[in-house]
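Sequence of N-acetyltransferase domain-containing protein (marine metagenome).
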Amino acid sequence: MTNSGCDSVLGAQDLDLVRVAKWEGEIAARYQLKQMTKTEFVLESIRVEMAYRSRGLGSWMLGHSIGLAEARGGRSIEVAFDRRHRFFERRGFSRTKNGVLRLEVQPE
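Predicted 3D structure, token representation.
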């Protein structure tokens, strides 16, 4: 993981909502969620290091972040950045009227 990636993870106020993934002993990916309200979460960052891309790790990390939000009562997840919008749209996120990428989660 790059220094900037480590700094953003280590600088997170709520490390309980930060996850890293290792691939063959190396940190390969990370994400950071923020809980805004009882049911609303924001995905503040998600990153897969260049050497580990195109292996499905980004999709796995996104799925994990959605599962973590759901387990904590989350019913909506917004993306705090606008890069890679097609990645999120292919996985069920849609744009709100304000242009924010959002996923609505329904309890089972």
